[in-house]
Structures are given as C-alpha cells and as structure tokens.
C-alpha cells in the first residue's frame, strides 16, 4: 500500500500554482470573453502552462492575444508559432499600424503597443485580459491588484483601486470597462524559474546562454535586427536574455547559464532586478512604468 | 522543502515600520542594487516601499504594497500596510491573507492607542500570530526592564511573541543582538522562518466552493480550491444550496488523478450522481456540512467613501457565489462611514452556506459590493449563532 505521506504538506511553488489556478477559474467563471496576453516570454509561457492545467483535460476556454511590435526576436516568434499551433491565437500588429500611418515609425516600439492592445481588447469585446505582470518586477506593480479595473480608455487609476481581501476577487465592472487579471502577481523571477525547472517547461532558446554579436548602449547589450542597430560596433559575447520584449529596448546579460538550474543559481546570486538589467524603457524616469500603466499598458 | 508564509506589517511610520521592512529585505539580500541606488542611509530604507508618484511627492504611503523575500527555508509574501492614511482599510486588506502580523512599537512610547487598534484589527481578522516588535531599543540603552514592560502590556486573542529590536542598527532583525544577550528568544527572521506557516488542514472540515464546471466527453468535473480540510475519493458529500448528498467519484489536482486532496490545492472533483451543480455551489463532507442561511450576521469593516446604510440594496460575494441582499440592521447607529467597524445583518435573496469566521477565514468571509458600479464597499466576517 502507498504510504499516505505528506498530507497537508505544500511547498511554496504548489501554493503559488494553486493560487494561479484559482485566479484563472474565477475569471473564467465571472467573465464572458477573457483573453490571455501571450508574448512568448517566460512569464506568459508559465501563465499559459498554468491556464492549461487549470482547465485540464478540457481545452483552454479563451483565446490568446499577442501584441507584435514587429521587432521581436525571431527565435521568440518561431517558438510562439510552435506552442500555439493548436490554440486560438490573435496577433495585433504594431507594424500594420505604422504601415497605414496610425502610429509613428520610431525605433523603440515598446510604447507603441498600447494602442493596438486597447483596439484588440475593444474589437474582441474582451472583458478580462490576463497579463503575466508580477508585483516583484517594479514598484508601481507592487501596488497592483490581482483583478485590476481599467476604465473605458484602458487606463489604470492607482487611487481608485478596489481593496482586495482574502481570495475574494471582485470582477464587477460596467460596460466599456475591463479587468486586467494577473495570475502571477505573487510570483518572483526565482519562483518562475523554479517552476520552469520543476515542470520542465520549454522556453525560447535565447533565455539560455549562447554566442551573440551585441553592442553597448547605455550599459546594456543590444542586438541589431530589423529595428536597426546595424551601424554599431559589434562584439561577440556569451549572453542570455532575462526578459524578452521588443529588440530595440531589451538587453542581454553576460551569462554562461545553459539550463534552468544554472539560471536559478545565477539569479540567486544576482544583485540587479531583471527590469533594471534589461529594460531601457524603465530607465527613462522614476515613474516610467506607472505612466505607461496609466495609459493602458500591460 | 521551502514553504510559504504570508505576513503583514503594521505600526506608524514614526515607530520605524518601513525601516524594519527595508531591513528585512536588505539583510535577507532581497533588495537589488538598482533598487538600492536611491538609498543613502539605513533610515532611507523606507523609500523602498513607496511605489507611486503621489506617494513620493507627498511623502506618504497610500496603498498596501506587496514585498517578496526568501531565505533557504521559506518564501515570504509581505503586505506592507501604511500607518496613517485610511489605516483600517489597508490594515484589513493586508491582514486578510496573513498568517502573522508584525506590529512595530517604539520602545520609548510603548503600546499606544494606535497599537491597540492595529492589534484589534489583526484579532478581528483572526491572524493567528502576532509579533510585537519593540523597536528603537538602542534609544533605551537596550534595557530589559523597558522591553518587559512593553511586552506585557498588549492583549491579543491569538499567540503573541515580543521581540526587542533596533531596525536602524539591525539588532535582532536578522542577526542576533550583541547588545541584548538577556534576550533568549528568536530574532524576527528566525521566528518568521519557524512559525507555523498555515493552519494544518487535517483538523478542519473540507470545503470546496465550485468555481467552474469543466466539461469533457459528457463528463462534468467541478473545479475549485479546497479552502480547508481533506477530501477523499469515495467520501460522502453534500452539495449546497439544495442539500443533495452524493459521493466523490474522482479527484484531479490540476489534471493529475489522486485519491486524497487537501487545502489549499486547486482541484476538480467528479460526483457519482448527476446533480445540478454550478458555480457558487459548495461541496463539503455530509457529516460536517455548514448550515444555509438568508440572514447573514457579520462584523463589517466599511472600506468605501460612500456610507453603508440600513435599507440599502447590496451584493454579497461569499466564496464563488454572489447574491442580492438588503442591509437590515447596523449596530451601532444606522450607517457605517469609511474605516468604521460595526455589526451588520443582511437579508439575502438566496441561500448561502456559511461558516463562522472563527472556523474558516474563507467560507466565513464576504464582501459587500455596490450593485451600481461594482465597487467593493465593505468586508464582512460572518458569525454563525
């Protein structure tokens, strides 16, 4: 007979996993048309993995949405297409907006994602939008709710946030408003990697150490691509990416970590946050993230 | 195996709460150097917790901030609740999920009226452990007598552990103090690492509020998170409202079949009988199922600028069930303003299967929601009489 060991014993990862599943199921139970934002980055990959488990063995009861800046890493787009081949994926293209003159053609496109995102939410009549944001990422996000109400312009008003008690998430909203839902609110970068290791979750290869031609811009290792950067003096480095976003503002870090366990060791020893290390857009101002969130950003 | 502890901090800014939080993050090496660039001295550790522009501009903390740190033994989620602005609302929010509250007092002032209010709110929310962090011991010559007088002056319905510290110098926060060898108890961090992290589910009755029905190949599985207790395949269960009794035919933990599940696992159960079970139902062991009621008695913390009034129509959100209701009585007075606490009775339009909040911080809790704009108006702790 199997010993009934460890009844009641629960590791921190299992608690976080159960909480995320609870959040997915609450949203599916309370909203008409949820959508999951999927970028091909590790947080959205973990989020998708949790969503699939929350509704197993049934298929995912909502589609995915990717806001493609047109300057994404090709490895990430290839990965996205592979893992979403049997899921419903909608792509909102920043490039299309630029081509028809609806958005300016600037080299750094991260800030351009808000308009296509809000348009896709409106045209899909999505009343709940899952995002992979974590409170440990950045100090404005530390004050974000799990269920975060957005007005008809998609805007976040930190002074108007609802108090969030116990695990009672209030998703009530009036027509035109929607709710951003963050199932990974209580996860840290380390938790995400420990979970990737524990569940053997596949990621785009650029999350692990590889050789790459990069150049230095304001202390960040950027890589030339369709966005530009071709006239820069390149250096060959062994790098990996801690975050994956628009190529123009996502920097690589020097690293030799080639497996999830080596990444975990590296993060545990790191003294810089992932956003501080790799995101040029957050370095602009003290309140850069808060300002983007107020306008409707992820 | 690393476990998770949820805690909240309370105390006024002048007592050094933010410095203590900064010290815990800093000394457990959870603060990264890019976040530290604005920190010039230990007293600036408070800056780590002010995330919004208005907070930095006005020099106040408005909202609960969540902080994350870890030691090799345990992962911590810390709800940092501001001391001044709307303290009840923030304190109630932070304490609602906490297994432990760290209440900071200034050793020179001892337990103040505000300390007692923070302790009362923690007690009302049934936070099982309270740490009384007697801070600024460096300013009272590390005196054992001063500490003992403060430590003995607080009543609390749960377990209290008093620890003498200096957040500024770090004494007894993470590292033991060389100045207070008379203190034989743990440091703050030692205590956080070893205290019981969550209630042992084995002693509680199982409760499964149904969140969602997973339908595959003609089979229905009822998905939810066990809020207490243990559930077995083959166990006789009652589904409320309705009160029908059936048997657990199968349990999945996020896709993996098991014979036994326990709180706080997210699971899906299949039942042997084809009953009308949907979101908002509660599945519990037949022997320990709660009673249903339409007259909900609750101690209510009012959280919204708009007063709560007798006769008002309101929505009650209890676990996964939201029902219409009317406020039938409020004591004392006939209304509650923001940050007021009172005893409220609401008459609901449908049955709710509730536990006493003293028995369950999940099936004994509810929100009162404004039907017009969806605002969260109040938090309720249910009494079953």
Which architecture of the largest domain in chain B does the CATH hierarchy give at level 2?
3-Layer(aba) Sandwich
Mean pLDDT of chain B: 90
CATH architecture of the largest domain in chain A: 3-Layer(aba) Sandwich
Strand portion of chain A, in percent?
5-15%
Largest sheet of chain A: 6 strands, mixed
* Count of runs of 4 or more consecutive helical residues of chain A: 9
The overall number of domains of chain B is: 3
Identify the quaternary structure here.
heterodimer
Strand content of chain B: 35-45%
Low-confidence stretches of chain B: none
Describe the structure.
- The complex is a heterodimer of chains A (298) and B (385).
- Chain A has 9 helices and 10 strands.
- Chain A has 298 residues and is α/β, with parallel strands linked by helices.
- Chain A has 2 domains: 12-189 and 288-294, 3-Layer(aba) Sandwich (Rossmann fold), CATH 3.40.50.620; 204-283, no CATH class.
- In chain A, the strands form 2 sheets. Chain A has a 6-stranded mixed β-sheet, sandwiched between helices. In chain A, strands 8-7-9-10 form a 4-stranded antiparallel β-sheet, with no helix packed on it.
- In chain A, helix 1 crosses helix 2.
- Chain A is globular, with a radius of gyration of 19 Å.
- Chain B is α+β, with helices and mostly antiparallel strands.
- Chain B has 3 domains: 3-194, Rossmann fold; 201-288, Translation factors (Elongation Factor Tu (Ef-tu), domain 3); 292-383, Beta Barrel (Elongation Factor Tu (Ef-tu), domain 3).
- Chain B contains 7 helices and 24 strands.
- Chain B has helices spanning 17-27, 33-36, 53-58, 87-96, 113-124, 144-151, 188-194, and strands spanning 3-10, 65-70, 74-80, 100-106, 129-135, 159-164, 208-209, 212-216, 219-225, 230-232, 236-240, 244-253, 256-258, 260-262, 266-271, 282-285, 292-302, 308-309, 313-318, 321-331, 335-336, 341-353, 365-369, 376-383.
- In chain B, strands 7, 8, 9, 11, 12, 13, 15 and 16 form an 8-stranded antiparallel β-sheet that branches.
- The longest helix of chain B has 12 residues, at 113-124.
- The model of chain B has no long low-confidence stretch (mean pLDDT 90).
- At the A-B interface, helix 1 and helix 2 of A face helix 2, helix 3, strand 2, strand 3 and helix 4 of B.
């Amino acid at each position: 007979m199997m010993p009934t060991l460890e009844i009641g014993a629960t590791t921190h990862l299992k608690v976080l996993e159960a909480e995320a599943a609870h959040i997915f199921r609450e949203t599916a139970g309370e909203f008409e048309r949820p959508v999951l934002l999927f970028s091909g980055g590790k947080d959205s990959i973990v989020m998708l993995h949790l969503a699939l488990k929350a509704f197993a063995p049934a298929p995912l009861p909502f589609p995915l949405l990717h806001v493609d800046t047109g300057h994404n890493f090709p490895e990430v787009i290839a990965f996205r297409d592979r893992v979403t081949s049997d899921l419903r994926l909608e792509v909102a293209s920043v490039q299309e907006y630029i081509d028809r003159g609806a958005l300016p053609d600037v080299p750094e496109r991260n800030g351009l994602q808000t308009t296509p995102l809000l348009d896709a939410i409106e045209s899909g009549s999505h009343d709940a939008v899952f995002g992979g944001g974590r409170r440990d990422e950045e100090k404005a996000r530390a004050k974000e709710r799990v269920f975060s109400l957005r007005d008809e312009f998609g805007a976040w008003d930190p002074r108007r946030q609802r108090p969030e008690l116990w695990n009672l998430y209030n998703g009530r909203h009036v027509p035109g408003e929607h709710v951003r839902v963050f199932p990974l609110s209580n996860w840290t970068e380390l938790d995400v990697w420990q979970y990737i290791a524990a569940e053997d979750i596949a990621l785009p290869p650029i999350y692990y150490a590889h050789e790459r031609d990069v150049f230095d811009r304001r202390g960040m290792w950027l890589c030339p691509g369709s966005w530009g950067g071709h006239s820069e003096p390149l250096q060959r480095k062994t790098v990996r990416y801690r975050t994956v976003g628009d190529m123009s503002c996502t920097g690589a870090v020097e690293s030799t970590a080639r497996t999830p366990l080596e990444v975990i060791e590296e993060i545990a020893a790191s003294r810089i946050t992932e956003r501080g290390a790799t995101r040029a857009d957050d370095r602009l101002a003290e309140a850069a993230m808060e300002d983007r969130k107020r306008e409707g950003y992820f | 195996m690393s476990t998770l502890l949820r805690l909240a901090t309370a105390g006024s800014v002048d007592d050094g709460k933010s410095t203590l939080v900064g010290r815990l993050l800093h000394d457990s090496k959870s603060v990264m150097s890019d976040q530290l660039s604005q920190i010039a001295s230990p007293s600036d550790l408070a800056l780590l917790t002010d995330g919004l522009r208005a907070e930095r501009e006005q020099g106040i903390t408005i909202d609960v901030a969540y902080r994350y740190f870890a030691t090799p033994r345990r992962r911590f989620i810390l709800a940092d609740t501001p001391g001044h602005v709307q303290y009840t609302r923030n304190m109630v929010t932070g304490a609602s999920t906490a297994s432990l509250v760290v209440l900071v007092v200034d050793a020179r002032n001892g337990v103040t009226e505000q300390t007692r209010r923070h302790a009362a709110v923690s007690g009302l929310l049934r936070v099982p452990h309270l740490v009384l962090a007697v801070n600024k011991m460096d300013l009272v010559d590390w005196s054992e007598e001063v500490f003992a007088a403060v430590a003995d002056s607080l009543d609390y319905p749960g377990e209290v552990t008093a620890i003498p510290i200096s957040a500024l110098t770090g004494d007894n926060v993470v590292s033991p103090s060389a100045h207070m060898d008379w203190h034989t108890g743990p440091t703050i961090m030692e205590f956080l690492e070893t205290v019981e992290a969550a209630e042992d589910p084995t002693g509680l009755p199982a409760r499964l509020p149904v969140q969602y029905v997973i339908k595959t190949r003609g089979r229905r599985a009822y998905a939810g998170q066990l809020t207490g207790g243990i559930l077995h395949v083959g166990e006789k269960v009652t589904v409320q409202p309705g009160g029908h009794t059936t048997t657990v035919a199968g349990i999945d933990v996020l896709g993996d079949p098991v014979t036994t599940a326990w709180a706080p696992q997210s699971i899906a159960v299949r039942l042997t009988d084809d009953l009308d079970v949907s979101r908002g139902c509660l599945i519990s062991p037949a022997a320990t199922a709660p009673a249903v009621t339409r007259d909900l008695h609750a101690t209510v913390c009012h959280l919204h600028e708009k007063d709560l009034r007798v006769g008002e129509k309101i929505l009650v959100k209890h676990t996964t069930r939201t029902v219409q209701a009317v406020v039938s009585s409020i004591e004392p007075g006939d209304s509650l303003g923001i940050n007021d606490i009172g005893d409220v009775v609401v008459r609901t339009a449908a049955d709710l299967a509730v536990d006493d909040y003293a028995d369950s911080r999940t099936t004994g809790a509810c929100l009162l929601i404004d039907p017009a704009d969806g605002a969260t108006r109040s938090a309720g702790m249910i009494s079953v009489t």
